[in-house]
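To close the chapter, one final illustration. This time we ask the reader to focus less on the individual chains and more on the assembly as a whole: which components sit near each other, and how the overall shape emerges from the parts.
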Amino acid sequence: MKLDIPSLIIQMLEYTKISLVIFFLTLIFALPLGLAISLLRMSKLKILNIPIRVYLLIVRGTPLMLQLLFIYFAPYYLLGLSYDRFVAAILAFTLNYAAYFAEIYRGGIESISKGQYEAASMLGFTKLHTFIKIILPQVVKRILPSMGNEFMTLVKDTALAQTIAVAELFRIASNAASRASSTLPYIIAGIIYLILNSLIEWIFNKVEKHLDYYK
Amino acid sequence: MKVIQASNIKKQFDDVEVLKGISLEVNKGEVLAIIGPSGSGKSTLLRCLTQLEHIDTGEIYVCGQQMVQTQNNHAIYASPTDLVKMRLETGLVFQNFNLFPHFSALRNVTEALIHVLKTPKDEAKSKAISLLKRMGLEDKLDAYPCELSGGQQQRVSIARALALSPQVLFFDEPTSALDPELTNEILKIIRELANEKMTMVVVTHEMNFAKEVADRIIFMEEGIIACEGAPNDIFGSAQNDRLRSFLGHFNI
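The assembled structure is written out below.
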């Protein structure tokens, strides 16, 4: 079968949208969830931090592909419940990325000197005000490079959604490649991922420059 | 009027007893200098009086209000609301400034006025500007801490502490992170505040400064107040051997 390149590209761009939806939904859920998890992880109460450490170990210690398959198929095999594969993909990505974000937040939060908290408390700031206005902005600046890494990895990891048959950019490329016995669809997909990540790198550079006014 | 009254304060870190029963009073309008070798408990004392550390036993009053008392050998602190109120009566200037790096000099000063004292923004801004002017920083209002010298940063932090109009201002070795020229900048400010009858407690290694500015000097050693008196007594015929040997290290 001969490849109709223009319509292949249009179709691939169409499914790039799905990859982007996975990307953005994962960020929307995992960024705040990761912050909550990092705060629990730093709690001195064992009843809070031990379950979180177990979760972090499991999520960071097993393949994301395995987690996708487990989250989608386990309810079916165990309880006979089946649900939308797209929802399963978002759930798996969110739980996975929240774990990595949590550890990045923790590194950032723990790098802020005790003096900042002491100065804030001498001025009578509440704990919430101290965290939101004094600590978090400094944390964001410090974790930007690591976050840039994670965002770029997430763009590429969306390709794993195809393991539970979510139709996104990579799956469309794979199908087209095997139908036409050609590597061209893979190359096009690679270029699209590369363009997306160039964009992310550009945005992160901009934000880093924007926050360059203080040290 | 007594701004600070503390009696028999004890504080232990793990097995090390840092404060072994300190009693002191600070009168309104007075400048009290605390001197002594490193590790004698000077900074810990300041941190206890400003609630940055909790004492094990003893009593502390701030402006006549009880901050902490001791019952059955346990320190019992006042309610959180009262503690915040008392904390605002006590300003603290840190050795390494602890300015908020992401705020301009001006916002470092206005932030607490606006969000803690709920001062209207315009009023907070004009108060902060006049304080920074007093510190000689009128052309640095919009500068960020990283753009300022150590002396300028310390002056911003003094303005930040003064903004809340505390009854007493504590200084924890305010010049230790500064070179001699910048040190004089800060000492000049403290001298001016002393002339305006600001109540101050200054932990310092600047003996000449303590001698000149303080109304009273406390010499601490190994967690106790070893000597206390007017500068002339302390620097005169030093009656205490340890004090004499400590002062021997300085050119006075």
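Chain B is about 35% helix and 30% strand. Chain B has one domain: 2-247. With these observations in hand, you are ready for the problems at the end of the chapter.
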